[in-house]
Specification:
Bound molecules: manganese (II) ion
Largest sheet: 5 strands, antiparallel
Shape: globular
Strand order of the largest sheet: 7-6-8-14-15
Helix content: 25-40%
CATH superfamily of the largest domain: Creatinase/methionine aminopeptidase superfamily
Strand content: 25-35%
Radius of gyration: 19 Å
CATH architecture of the largest domain: Alpha-Beta Complex
């Protein structure tokens, strides 16, 4: 890895750490998620970076992929996952934590399980660590607490302007002998009192560019040009586009989705609708060092 690359990744990580501290200060039970999202977006910009993806604020059984719509009225509650992405010049920090807003013993234990799993996975990690070894550590910490890891959600390698690049890091022992190698990686265990799987739920309002096709509608083309320029190959949300183009953006998004130029993610919901906790850090691994950036 180039020095310059490591510099930008650590810079993004430093900013992400500050944004997390800020998030912990402003998130309280019954604060509107929309207000939280807008404040966090503004904080990221204030610190000289950009969001690498729309903040995920996912409650209880929704494990991930939930961001407030421009007119969202949901209030913070339950077991809330706060997943934040920051990028500097396309170099990404991806990090998450969970909050118990109900003073629930089970929520607290789930959060401890996810955090212990993350710490254990990062403890002795090196370029030589096998993917199954990371998964096994995560699985052990979570199952020893009588919970389940979510096996169809995983960590991932992170490249410039590419949030999920190539390598998948399992949250259980998947028998993969592949060594993780050099690079930058997001490790993200999820712990649940449910069955340990997620399925697709409602549309999330989070999109990414899918493929290049002709779009007839000229306004949709204008919105698409803005998406490409502003977010490149990173995920984006309707909230950001409504801010730029007013609610007219929603129709353009619909047209682009119909033409399969953009893809909308679904919310990821625990199959037994049981609560889920998440913890996530981004780590740089080189032959010489390990840097947890977030
Ligand atoms: Mn994340
Ligand atoms: Mn991630």
């Amino acid at each position: 890895m180039e020095k310059d690359e490591i510099q930008k990744l650590t810079n993004a990580g430093e900013i992400a750490k500050k944004v997390k501290e800020f998030a912990r200060e402003i998130i309280k039970k019954d604060v509107p998620l929309l207000k939280i999202a807008n404040k966090i977006d503004a904080k990221i910009e204030e610190l000289g970076a950009k969001p690498a993806f729309p903040i995920n604020l996912s409650i209880n059984e929704v494990a991930a992929h939930s961001t407030p719509a421009f007119n969202d009225e949901t209030l913070a509650s339950g077991l809330l996952k706060v997943d934040i992405g920051v990028h500097v010049d396309g170099y990404i920090a991806d990090t998450a934590f969970s909050l118990d807003l109900e003073n629930s013993e089970e929520n607290k234990k789930l959060i401890q399980a996810a955090e212990a799993a993350l710490n254990s996975a990062l403890e002795n990690i090196s370029t030589k660590t096998k993917l199954r070894e990371i998964g096994a550590k995560i699985e052990k910490e979570i199952t020893s607490r009588k919970f389940q890891p979510i096996i169809n959600l995983s960590g991932h390698s992170v490249s410039q302007y590419d949030l999920h690049s190539g390598i998948t890091i399992p949250n259980y022992n998947n028998s993969q002998d592949f060594e993780i190698g050099e690079g930058s990686f997001a490790i993200e265990p999820f712990a649940t009192s449910g069955s340990g799987k997620v399925k697709d739920g409602k549309p999330s309002g989070i999109y990414n560019l899918e493929k290049e096709t002709q779009v007839r509608d000229s306004f949709a083309r204008e919105v698409l040009a803005y998406i490409k320029q502003e977010f490149k190959t990173l995920p984006f949300c309707s909230r950001w586009l409504v801010k730029k183009f007013t609610t007219r953006a929603l129709l353009a998004l619909k047209r682009l989705e119909e033409a399969q130029v953009i893809h909308q993610y679904s919310q990821l919901v625990e199959t037994q609708r049981k609560p889920v906790a998440q913890a996530e850090h981004t780590v740089i691994l080189t032959e010489k060092e390990k840097i947890v950036t977030t």
